[in-house]
TrEMBL record:
Key words of the record: Membrane, Transmembrane, Transmembrane helix
Broad class of the protein's primary localization: membrane
Protein name per UniProt: Transmembrane protein 19
Localisation: Membrane
Species per Swiss-Prot/TrEMBL record: Mastacembelus armatus (zig-zag eel)
GO cellular component, one term: membrane
Family per record: Belongs to the TMEM19 family.
Keyword Transcription: no
Signal sequence extent: none
Membrane topology, record value: Multi-pass membrane protein
Length: 335
């Protein structure tokens, strides 16, 4: 009987907490809406944002962040970082949000998949991933900055990618999708390759065989996975565009965003491997029987130098993809 009372008490507390969070976010969204109306009165070029968009942009990332915290996909610092990234991308463009969602959920699922096998090859393996704020911002920092620039350029809302009408905004959309696809492709490759690949990885710079877990090592399955990881980001973005943009038929074709994202995932993963092979230290530690990223008396160097860690390599890769790839896509985009 006492256990039943405790259970009812916990359920009541949870229900009350959910109601408080909902009321607080609703009040916050109305406050921001009134604030945007006030600002638009003094600055006529600024358009007020609806309270429903404020509510969605606050509430949905909050719910997803709490879920990630409970499932140990994020630690507490990572949850705060993810909340900020999610809010900015959702406020700017719902297509940005759906692309971020595809990246986060697919990578979180893959991180848990094959955990027993990953423990055998990765000394830093954490169950569920448990990304901290550094990892969150190294993956989501570039998209967040691009989303802020997008809002400065055209304001919050969804627009089609059309270089003839919205050159700067279209460029920012491609950069943001490319950065997310790059991070997604690299994560898919690193999570799928070691589990499914039947062959030894080959170092991307010399093509010689290296132990599983070596920075810069690639496999055919990993490369295919990186393309699919980028592809899923592009599919999520494209579907949201189709559902929410009313004048899509008047703009340039939007389907190339799917192919673009897949290519960004593949190229970004290869770029990440190239940087990792040169700027991340990889050595085989005989005392633990695994590839490690530190030097010691029992470690035999495989490749790389201790210049960058994995987070920095991810950040540099996403920056390069965001800067370079949209220019190539602009020349090939069908009109």
């Amino acid at each position: 009987m006492e256990s039943e009372n405790n259970l009812l008490m916990k359920e009541s507390i949870k229900m009350m907490t959910d109601m408080i969070v909902l009321c607080a976010t609703l009040a916050l969204s109305i406050f921001f809406w009134v604030l945007s109306l006030t600002i638009s009165t003094y600055y006529g070029t600024l358009q007020p944002v609806s309270p429903w968009r404020w509510l969605f942009s606050i509430l949905v990332p909050l719910v997803l962040t709490i879920r990630g915290l409970k499932r140990r996909s994020l630690d507490r610092s990572g949850a705060l970082g993810a909340l900020l990234v999610g809010f900015v991308l959702t406020m700017a463009n719902y297509s940005f949000f759906s692309a971020l969602l595809a990246f986060f959920f697919s990578c979180s699922k893959l991180t848990r998949w094959g955990g027993e096998q990953k423990k055998k090859i990765d000394v830093e393996y954490k169950e569920g991933g448990q990304r901290n704020w550094v990892q969150v911002f190294c993956n989501g920092g570039v998209p967040t900055e691009l989303a802020l620039l997008y809002m400065i350029e055209v304001g919050p809302g969804e627009i089609p990618i059309d270089f003839s009408k919205q050159y700067s905004a279209s460029w920012m959309c491609l950069s943001l999708v490319g950065a997310l696809a790059c991070c997604s492709g690299d994560t898919w490759a690193s999570e799928v390759g070691p589990v499914l690949s039947q062959s030894q990885p080959r170092l991307i710079t010399t093509w010689r065989e290296v132990p599983v877990g070596t920075n810069g090592g690639v496999t055919p399955i990993g490369l295919v996975a990186s393309f699919l990881g980028g592809l899923i980001v592009g599919v999520a973005y494209f579907i949201t565009q189709v559902l929410l943009v009313s004048d899509l038929h008047l703009a340039d074709p939007q389907w190339p965003i799917v192919v673009y994202a897949g290519v960004a995932g593949l190229v970004g993963s290869m770029l990440d491997s190239f940087l990792g092979a040169h700027m991340q230290y990889s050595g085989f530690d005989s005392s633990v029987g695994k590839v490690v990223s530190y030097e010691s008396a029992t470690t035999r160097r495989i490749c790389g130098k201790p210049i960058l860690d994995n987070n920095a390599v991810n950040l540099f890769s996403s920056v390069l993809i965001a800067l370079i790839l949209p220019g190539l896509a602009w020349g090939l985009w069908p009109r």
